[in-house]
Amino acid sequence: METFLAVQEPLAASGVAEYGWLLIALPLFGAAVLLLGGRRTNAWGHLLGCATVIAAFVYGLALFLSMTGMPADERVRELHLFDWIPVNALNVEFGLRIDPLSMVFVLLITGVGALIHIYSVGYMSHDQAGRTGADNTERRRFFAYLNLFVGAMLILVLGNSFVTLYLGWEGVGLASYLLIAFWQHRPAAATAAKKAFLMNRVGDVGLALAIFLMFAELGTTQYTEVFARAGEMPTGVLLAIALLLLLGACGKSGQFPLQAWLPDAMEGPTPVSALIHAATMVTAGVYLIARSNPIYNLTEDGRLVVTIIGALTLLIGAIIGCAYDDIKKVLAYSTVSQIGYMILAVGLGPAGYALGIFHLLTHGFFKAGLFLGAGSVMHGMNDEVNMRRFGGLAKHMPITFVTFGLGYLALIGFPFLSGYFSKDEIVAAAFAQEGWRGWVFGGAAALGAALTAFYMTRLMLMTFFGEKRWKGQKSADGREYHPHESPASMTVPMIVLAFGSVFGGVLLYSGDRLLGWLEPSLGAVAHAEGGALPHSVIPFLVVGLSAVGVLLAWLLVGRRPVPATAPAQVSFPVRAARADLYGNALNETLFARPGTWLTRALVYVDNRGVDGLVNGIAALLGGSSGRLRRAQTGFVRSYALSILGGAVLLTAALLMVRFT
Amino acid sequence: MSGSVLLLALLFLPLLGALVVAFLRSDDRVAKGVALGFSIAELALVIAAWAAYDPAGDRIQLSSSAEWIPQFGVHFAVGVDGIALVMIALIGILVPIVIGGSWNDRLPEERTAAGFYSLILLMQALMVGVFAATDVLLFYVLFEAVLVPMYFLIGRFGGARRQYAAVKFFLYSLLGGLIMLASVIGVYVVSGNQLGSGTFDWETLVATVSTADTSTQIWLFLGFFIAFAIKAPLVPLHTWLPDAGAEAPIGVGVLLVGVLDKIGTYGFLRYCLPMFPDASRELAPLVLVLAVAGVIYGALLAVGQDDMKRFVSYTSVAHFGFIALGVFAFTSQAQAGAVLYMVNHGIATGMLFLVVGMVIARGGSRNISDYGGLAKLTPVLAGMFVVAGLASLALPGTNSFVSEFLVLIGAFPTQPVFTVIAAVGMILAALYVLWVYQRVMQGPLRGNAVLGLAGGPGAAGDPSSEGLAARLASKVPDLSRRELAVLAPLVALVLFLGVYPQPVLDVITPSVDATLTELGVTDPVQEGN
Question: Residue ranges of the NADH:quinone oxidoreductase/Mrp antiporter transmembrane domain (chain B) (predicted)?
């Protein structure tokens, strides 16, 4: 068996880190004040919401800086807070693991989180009907849920056991549910939220079962002990745990076969899509697998399945992304696809854990930026999402156009922008695999790059270039379109994220800054030699394929006018892609419909069968089958009779015992 | 010494209260107020008893005993272990909340508040007695006696089909009780054969009956088990619960599902396992099948309900499946989880029942299909619905998570297959909670109950939901201060016990360990494993 550099044993937290609980407490405090304070906090609720997250970011930054001052082998720290669930051999601690991996997430979550909180101040300033400042209850509720999300997400990444991870895991699920259903009078939003929660719960059960297995095998659920003693578990159990954790990751991260909820989640307000359903929560699956690297290191089969799921999902997401006309859904499927890249990367094991996190970070910048840009477009276009109604918006929204454009270039891997570094590294690592794996996984990743370039170019062309198809049209609520640039509170976060999209990659990549930083948590990156294709040709291959994708999009979309309604007569692949490659239809046929029939049948049986049977027996034993029917009039008598019967029996029995 | 006085006071204070309130027929407000006062005094006693109880102390504490029927060795003997104590604490917490929650209930004609609240207090005294009894015959008598106030509370103060439901409840329970009586006599006989003279003393019975041969144990076990399985209720003996739960007034439903049903699962722990260890181990697979069947079956039926109160009852059937799984998985984690589940379910489902009652009080209908979009009119009530629902589906951070997690993680090492099946119940729980919430609270304003308040569906000519909402806003008020005061302690408990369950677990765990020792099993997963 291969051996890898083990994850470091943690030391007790000291100095700044002793107040690590503040990271979680701050946003949760904000959420509590806004939810319990009610209307009294309407006026300043959004400011408090921003302040708690900014404060958490500042503290996180201080924590990060103090960690950079430590030697690398002292950077993994644990902070014990209290015993959460102690029963004999089981002791679930409530504690924090403050290490390079969790710090990276803390900065991402609070940093991007703070930007999106600020953006939301502008975005949520007018309600659904387009009125400004009529009633700030909605906005306060929104910031309460956002704060709740940040708190839960920080528990997820900072917890020091699989159970605290699970607490955060379902906590972010709740925040996601509440925010998808934020406009809960819309049936589509309510349904999408429920769907998201349910599909996540399927994954959560996988995660829970993995935790149960760890306890049964090792008697603990704490990271430190599980990781140190993972090798004691038999291979079969390790594989089972790896697959169950993967199931959890698939639910949270919208990976095949649990991907269908993520596009529907776009019913939520756009800042939510940016923060939760692009930059942070949906990447939790990647975190889970990277965090569990001591387990995955020991099961090659488990890693292989992870890689397959990642490769499959990146292609599914990219293919469907080509077919949608809804700007947010294209971005959502793009997220599915990009997380597929990350899952593929962490499935490669020590060669890929850090690469997955690298892509997660750059993706966090440019995808959040893209979603905020889409939100800005919608903000100026009466909440329209249909790209066939856009066109020529570049002139009307210059800042949005430029920042969105930079995010677009970063995503398709334009040379030296952030996506270029992180995606190329994954493609290269995939190609470096031995034998058929190199060709299959490398090939899938490279093909995905071409598809990404295609659908994103199509989106750019349809939105910002070409004819102004919105002229003379009216939105669903009967208003004319007057596209305009968004206020500064929205554009400033977009500009900051655009900077990240441009420079993030090179900053993190140069000198192995990020990869070296993560070593104490993830082990050293194992650069594979050989494989299907050498590393040096990868940039050319990926850039070349992306260029083909861009060109194709221009030929198909840019060169000719875009029809205002989607053409109905299309080929099978397009039809399949529009139908989400039949993922929803499959769920419907396999689960929803049989489930409905089953519950109906059971309700019938329970009312007629089980109840009838037991009623019958009860009536029989009661001595009169008519008693129940006559109960309306004769109940006092029957009651007295029963009591009498009981008393007689009791006395008789006692006497019997006494005299025998 | 002072401890035993405390427990006796816990028993007799509500009884005294019941007597006093029964005479306050002339003024409903006074009757309610006095009842509330007694229940709060009882809660203070509960806190004192909690403080007096030493988790590291004797198996049974705060005990006292007096001869009752000396010819048969029957004693009026009471005392508590950790399991009984947490249940008595749950009663102490729920009764004031139930009284506050029923405050504005419209009573049927010719019924007075004095009657209602007197019966509530009587039931409280009897329930405390059931959990505190350490004489098996005393337990049996109280087990049956509890039926009487419950029967009248459902049959006199309930909904339209209250008498059908009350009789059904009564017959089921009585049937179970009579079967148990045979076993109660049986253990007396067995102890008599061994000791020369029979006894009903619980600790002596545990020591003697547990040594009987397996087939005797199995027969005696079954007598107790059937009675408890009806109470608990386990599938397929559950069908009285949806009727009783639906027809009972909301507050009575809270006590029925929150406490009274727990007598069944408590009985498993207190009587079935320690007295009949061989039979328990022998028959555990059978019980586990019923438990896991209940988890899935109850959840599926909850999904299919249109009546909100029946819905809550069926969710309880699923939850009782989890509890039974925890009891019969025979590990300390699972069993401590099951006991904690009994407490948490009382809090969470009690809250869900109350919230549903508040919805019904506004719309006047129990049917889910009569509602829609209520969150727009009553956002705070909707928020409370969410909290109760999340506690019901055991979201981490709520109290129920800790217990469900303990049951499952504890059951997994000994019963992996049953645990995996039960884990599917976690998904179904999310489905039934969120779907009901969606239909009642989310979406546009709709449904006869909601639109009826605006002057009927026909009068809702204004198509914009804004106009409709404006007209309805004055007719459908959000939570009143009283309602908030009733729910606030439950919300606090849901969150506190979700984050810091340790004080309760510390009380439960030693008693569970003792039960498992009596059962003769050890944990498969040991410290430092």
Answer: 133-424
CA dihedral angle for residue A540, residue A546, residue A551, residue A552, rounded to 10 degrees: 130
> Coil, helix or strand for A125?
coil
Task: Report, as ranges of residue numbers, the positions in chain A whose pLDDT lies below 50.
Answer: 1-4, 623-634, 657-660
Q: What pLDDT is recorded for position A354?
A: 92
pLDDT at A649: 61
Rounded CA-CA distance A99/A77 in Å is 6
Residues in A 161-190 with any Cβ partner in B closer than 8 A:
163, 166-167, 169-171, 174, 177-178, 181, 184-187, 189-190
Smallest Cβ–Cβ distance between A89 and the set B412, B441, B527 belongs to: B527
Q: How far apart are CA A318 and CA B301, in angstroms?
A: 40
Distance from CA of B91 to the nearest CA of A (A): 24
A630 part of a folded domain: yes
Range of the domain at A492: 311-360+370-475+483-578
**Are the beta carbons of A602 and B441 separated by less than 8 Å?**
no
Q: For B72-84, what is the mean pLDDT? A: 93
Say if A12 is an interface residue toward chain B (CB within 8 Å): no
* Cα–Cα distance measured from residue B250 to residue B253, given in angstroms and rounded to the nearest whole number: 5
CA distances from B380 to A30, A193, B312, B371, B397 (A): 18, 20, 20, 17, 20
What DSSP state is assigned to residue A68?
A: H
Q: Dihedrals φ, ψ of B61, to 5°?
A: -125, 175
Domain count, chain A: 2
Put simply, the answer to whether A205 touches B402 (Cβ < 8 Å) is no
**CA A582 from chain center: how many Å?**
22
> Residue B333 is which amino acid?
Q
Percent of chain A residues topping a pLDDT of 90: 53
Structural contact between residues B7 and B49, judged by C-beta atoms closer than 8 angstroms: yes
Q: For residues B211-234, give the mean pLDDT.
A: 92
Q: Are residues A571 and A615 in the same domain?
A: no
- pLDDT value at position A184? 85
CB–CB of B426 and A205 under 8 A? Answer: yes
Average pLDDT, chain B: 91
**Tokens linked to A150:** 């940040």
pLDDT digits (tens, 9 = 90+) for B483-512: 999 999 999 999 999 999 999 999 999 999
* Mean pLDDT confidence for B341-366: 94
Tell me: do A348 and A396 sit in the same domain.
Answer: yes
A298 in a structural domain = no
Closest Cβ opposite residue A89 in set B181, B301, B526: B526
Question: How much is the pLDDT for A596?
Answer: 82
pTM metric for this prediction: 0.91
* Number of CB pairs, chain A paired with chain B, less than 8 A apart: 210
